[in-house]
Specification:
The structure is a homodimer of 239-residue chains.
Chain A (H helix, E strand, L loop, with lengths): L1 H43 L5 H47 L1 H13 L5 H11 L3 H12 L9 H25 L4 H27 L3 H29 L1
Helix pairs in contact in A: 1-2, 1-6, 1-7, 1-8, 2-3, 2-5, 2-6, 3-4, 6-7, 7-8
Amino acid sequence: MSKKTLDNRSHKEEHLGSSAFITDIVIGMSDGLTVPFALAAGLSGAVQSNAVVITAGIAEIVAGSIAMGLGGYLAGKTEQEHYQSELKREYDEVEFVPDREREEVKLIFAEYGLNELSQNTIAGELSKDKDKWVDFMMKYELGLEKPDVNRARNSAATIGISYIVGGFIPLTAYFFTHTPYQGLMFSALLTIICLFLFGYFKSKVTGQPPLKGALKVTFIGVTAAAAAFLVAKLFNNLF
Amino acid sequence: MSKKTLDNRSHKEEHLGSSAFITDIVIGMSDGLTVPFALAAGLSGAVQSNAVVITAGIAEIVAGSIAMGLGGYLAGKTEQEHYQSELKREYDEVEFVPDREREEVKLIFAEYGLNELSQNTIAGELSKDKDKWVDFMMKYELGLEKPDVNRARNSAATIGISYIVGGFIPLTAYFFTHTPYQGLMFSALLTIICLFLFGYFKSKVTGQPPLKGALKVTFIGVTAAAAAFLVAKLFNNLF
């Protein structure tokens, strides 16, 4: 078991290293495959022209990729600012109220059943090096990891591009067909295959059961498309 | 400063308690206000009928709320399964390779400059109670918090409903106007006000500078809408 554990651990760390990038692709493509597909499906039941479906699809892809990409970028920057302001506060606390901070360290370990003596040892040792002490408080008291400065920008680009790539797949069918209904048939066939493959890959990468994951992702896409189709048709008949 | 720190801390904890719900509203409404607004704006430059804009908007709201809500629900369930499988693995490791696990505990504290004696004290004390030991490893080695079982369902509903509420705001303008251009004027006016107020509220709740936050959120929405408008118009002229 020791060997297996070791393998798992080193595999885990490797996985965590690349996972930010993969996670961003998964986030962008998940939504990109689903929402433009469902919007196009919804419109296919309500309008007579492929051009309208494609125009709406493109407008959605532009809107969605910017909202997700730019939104992700600004959220990342906010996270960095938050980390910096908390870091400054921890340094101030370590400087001006060290006794309180030592009590907080002791409290963390009291919760895990360590006795007073061990608590004092840890707090005493930690407080010898202010940088490491602050590091410890950031991670274990506040649960904050140091954000990567390039992460926000790269993440935004990856999510946005993945959304665009995912979103164009369901739309392509409307370019090569004559009516929205024909477009919907080919779009649904193509997108369901892609959702399944994407769900399978996503689950493999994140260590989930791949078949179950593939079915989940496909289910979300098909449900969203069916609901959009029905609601748009209903609304169109009433209007 | 001690008093201020105490206030901040208790305020912080209170904030963390309600923040899951608020975060879900923020996630849903952010995208709900932005994407349907931008889609409607995009179509306003390309089609002649408010009915088409509204139909597309409704289809988008249905698709987006299901993709986000159902997607969020299934992601929450996956997170729970992941936690359970890691929990089982940690219990196995504590049971079958306790020496390795003690070494891992020591390694965590070695990084913070604690001496060998303190490391041994902590590892020895922690390993007296298996439940607390596993708790410790889950949180401090793997960085995993125990997920709330009701959280996935509640989160899905909150995100989905917030998306629907946010999404209907920009659409209302197209019900009461005669042409897409008129609709766009009122929609933009109404949505920009709502984006600004929402951004202000969101920043207040998350402890960010509110004016800066309000401008950020408004900027994302306006950029997405302007880009969707331009691309849809360009595509429509070429087609």
